Amino acid sequence: MDLDRSWVADFAEGDIEGIMSYHATNAIQMPPGAPPVVGAEAVRAAWQGMIDTEGLEATWEPTEVIVAPSGDMAYDYGTLTLTMPDGTVAPMKYAVVWVRESGEWKVAVDMFNSSESAE
User: Fold this and answer.
1) Does the N-terminal or the C-terminal CB of the chain have fewer CB atoms within 10 Å?
2) How far apart are CA 68 and CA 52, in angstroms?
3) How is domain 2-114 classified at the CATH fold level?
4) Buried b (16+ CB within 10 A) or exposed e, 106-116
């Protein structure tokens, strides 16, 4: 959970190197309404695009982390709030799959989508 919170802080500071330090070399990001973003360079570009979007803010808070008995994989889920450049606030949820890479926890899959109903 501390890794998630540090990741949030790095995003708030616009620290792309910090953000990427949490990601596995073959990371996948699965944003809402878009195809999967596959691989470190594509994930870097996606995060940089978010950082460069003036007025876009994102905060997330983990609810729970579950670690596999083997200790080499885990996942967490929680809430995400996106504030769009026009001030619209989008409540969201997320799930992140973590893997051990060179002895450190790294993001393998990052998926997020809306918490609002599609009525």
Assistant:
1) C
2) 36
3) Nuclear Transport Factor 2; Chain: A, (3.10.450)
4) bbbbbbbeeee
- Helices 40-52, 2-13: axis angle to 10 degrees equals 60
Provide the pLDDT for residue 111.
97
Q: Are strands 37-38 and 89-101 parallel, antiparallel or unpaired?
A: unpaired
pLDDT (tens digit per residue) in 80-113? 999 999 999 999 999 999 999 999 999 999 999 9
**pTM metric for this prediction:** 0.88
Helices and strands of the chain, counted as H and E runs: 3, 6
Domain ranges of the chain: 2-114
User: Do residues 51 and 16 lie in contact, with contact meaning Cβ atoms separated by under 8 Å?
Assistant: yes
**What whole-number distance in Å separates Cα of residue 80 and Cα of residue 19?**
16
CA distances from 76 to 14, 28, 29 (A): 23, 15, 15
- Parts of the chain with a pLDDT under 50: none
